[in-house]
Amino acid sequence: MDATEIGLWGVPLAMLGGAIRVSTPFIFVSLGEAITERSGRINLGLEGTLVFGAMTAYAVAVITGSPWLGLIAAAFAGLCFGLFHGWICKFPKVNDIAIGIALMLFGSGLAFFFGKPFIQPSAPDLPAIPFGGWSDIPQVQAALNVNVLFLIGAALAVFLWWAFRNTRAGLIVRVVGDSSDAARAMGLNPNTVRLLATGIGGALAGIGGAYLSLYYPGSWTEGISSGQGLMAVALVIFARWNPLGCFAAALLFGGAGALGPALQSVGVTQGYYLFYAAPYVLTLLIMIATSSPSRSLAGAPGELSITK
Amino acid sequence: MSDRGKKAVGVETIGMTMRFGAFTALEDVSIKAPAGSFHALLGENGAGKSTLVKCMMGFYHPTAGDILVDGREVAIASPKDASALGLGMVYQHFTLVPSLTGAENLVISREKVPGVIDWRKERAELARFMERMPFKLPLDVKVAELAAGEKQKLEIVKQLYLGRSFLVLDEPTSVLTPGEAQEVLGLVRAMTKAGDLTVLMISHKFHEVTAFADDVSVLRKGRLTGTGRVADLDHRQMAAMMIGDQPIAALDSRADPKPDAEIVLKVKALKAPDRTGLKSIRIEDLGVRSGEIVGIAGISGNGQKEFLEVLAGQRTRDAGDVLVKGSPYGASRAEARTFNVRFIPEEPLRNACAPRMTVAENMAFRTFDLNEAGKPINWIKMSAIRTFSARLVEQFKVKTASLASPISSLSGGNVQRAVLARELTGEVDLLIVSNPCFGLDFSAVAEIRARIMKARNAGAAVLLMSEDLDELLELSDRIFVMSDGALVYETPIAQASVQTIGEHMAGHH
């Protein structure tokens, strides 16, 4: 069979597949960032964490032969980056955004340094589950070949959404994010809560990086991330700090990102490069459409430095 | 949730003394609040009221003195100890978390919270608890969406929910409208009468003390200057204990209004969106003449704030005209300067100051880019700013550590004085004032009102918006009532009756 047989249906199908494939790192990074931002801090360094996570996962998978060990190593590396950010930010007069930018460059640089020897060898992939077995159309099968991390990410989004309302830890994160004074009055230490929230956020970003190098695109190169870490931070704001919103926004973003390749696959040969910019155009359009000159950002944690 | 079967406890301090280095904040203060009583603590800013209650709550460790709870001596080393004894405090500023709902706020403030919260069970328990409360509150709404009165009630409910049976209320009504204040204090009063609660209320509003308290203690400069049954004391005696023999600024007698004086401010068919964006405010016709004070009464949230924001240039208008001396006025800096328009908004630290800039810089906002002749200059002279501000600080008795301190480090009364100094210096043809005395103490209030009256007598047109009806009745020449975004009633001061004004404020007419 060839692509033209299902004709233009190939475009939405490829976009669905693309949404699932491309969105996974967005899901993890934005959920991690949602936790961090809900606690009142912003970690822009997740881009660096993502790249370093990708390198760590790939290197460990090459050495041990197990993609799962690679994943765990990436999460651990991300945790360290997050804790480092959280630890520096507890000092007075330190700005979390500036530290984030420094860590973004630091993480990428460190990953390139350690990653040099791993550009050539190939590592085992993370497993995917073929949900498309019922169909004999290869495009459907390809689109529904879903990586386990995507499923874990979806479950995590639902869990976080539930946990922010129904667990002590969730409520504590929200209290700290909204009012340091109220938190202190309850005997909570905002710095400790934020340290842990940033650490968890970093670990999730590391997992997002592991997905990049171990599944899609599935190899370690220096250009592995095209700014997913930074876009995920924007996604969180766009999703109004709601984990389910983060998941939906990541899917939307993934789908838009798959538009270019999908058009190419059905034989559009001209101007499809323009559609590679679709996610960014989409972000701009949504930001403009949802902005208001008279209202401030609804739902923003009160302690966040960008909303103060 | 602690046991609420527990009844009110009595609290007594004996010889409380607190020294910070060489400075004595509190000296030998003994007060007694028996179980189920409502005790008022009066005093000027800096008289030691906060120090005293912070010692009782375990925030400070007193240099000397004892605390008795139900007649037994107790050691209170930390706020935790205080709460274990059933002592709690409601702060002047809200300590609720704005983005959490009321129910979430209550549950998370508890000592022991389960890892996973069973909301069905918690809700049922909260509902049972709220049944015993004398007022209803929406617990499923985000605190940020509650009105100030509801927040204050929720703060009190939170303390009761945590099982406190002795409450310190720190100026509980400073953020409330008169109606809300009446309601909240009335409910607290009822709970003390029922023996469920003992209350120690910090205040400097005499009418609240007279209306609600059983006993009163007065502090001045860290010493107890008087105590007794409220029934035996009148306002003058309390004021004397509170401020000693220091003179109170007296109101200038009102110069006769001239009915044919020039109309300085004219507002015609003004329409602007309100805060929610769903409704709008409409001012059909309002004129303020030179040499008169026009008061606007109303319950907060009826559009006064939006009206003021339009006049101040903080909010865009949909339609209508604002004229100053016959010319269209758009609130630009140049227009304000040409027409001598001055502003004293509410919450001056937020609306009229740059909080982190110095006192000197803030006081020079109107004039820093002008020379003595009033012409624009290119190079700003810090020395000129400092001499100018130093003169105003002196003249308006602004208490500040130095001219170079950030203005946010000043107390509320002193920020208000600094803004007043800036706005009332030079020629003033139109003065727009909103709630100028919110949360200020006795002598500051008297002084600020006297200054406004002086500006009026000097020929300024004054538009005064206030939620304090007493203030409006004392100062205004004419009173309007604003309700649901429109001016619904007008009366000259001679015929003004609190009854009628109140009815229009409430929307029945």
UniProtKB/TrEMBL annotation, chain A:
Keywords, ordered alphabetically: Cell membrane, Membrane, Transmembrane, Transmembrane helix
One GO cellular component, as annotated: plasma membrane
Ranges that cross the membrane: 6-32, 44-63, 69-88, 97-119, 139-164, 193-214, 246-266, 272-290
InterPro entries, A to Z: ABC_transp_permease
Bilayer topology annotation: Multi-pass membrane protein
Major site of localization recorded for this protein: membrane
Superkingdom of origin: Bacteria
Annotated localization: Cell membrane
Name the record gives this protein: Nucleoside ABC transporter membrane protein
Organism: Mesorhizobium tianshanense
Phylogenetic classification of the source organism: Bacteria, Pseudomonadati, Pseudomonadota, Alphaproteobacteria, Hyphomicrobiales
UniProtKB/TrEMBL annotation, chain B:
Gene3D superfamilies per UniProt: P-loop containing nucleotide triphosphate hydrolases
The name this protein goes by in its record: Simple sugar transport system ATP-binding protein
Listed InterPro entries: AAA+_ATPase, ABC_carbohydrate_import_ATPase, ABC_transporter-like_ATP-bd, ABC_transporter-like_CS, P-loop_NTPase
Species of origin: Mesorhizobium tianshanense
Key words, A-Z: ATP-binding, Nucleotide-binding, Sugar transport, Transport
Residue span, ABC transporter domain: 11-246, 265-509
GO molecular function: ATP binding; ATP hydrolysis activity
Pfam families reported in the protein's UniProt record: ABC_tran
Keyword Nucleotide-binding in record: yes
Tree of life domain: Bacteria
Family: Belongs to the ABC transporter superfamily.
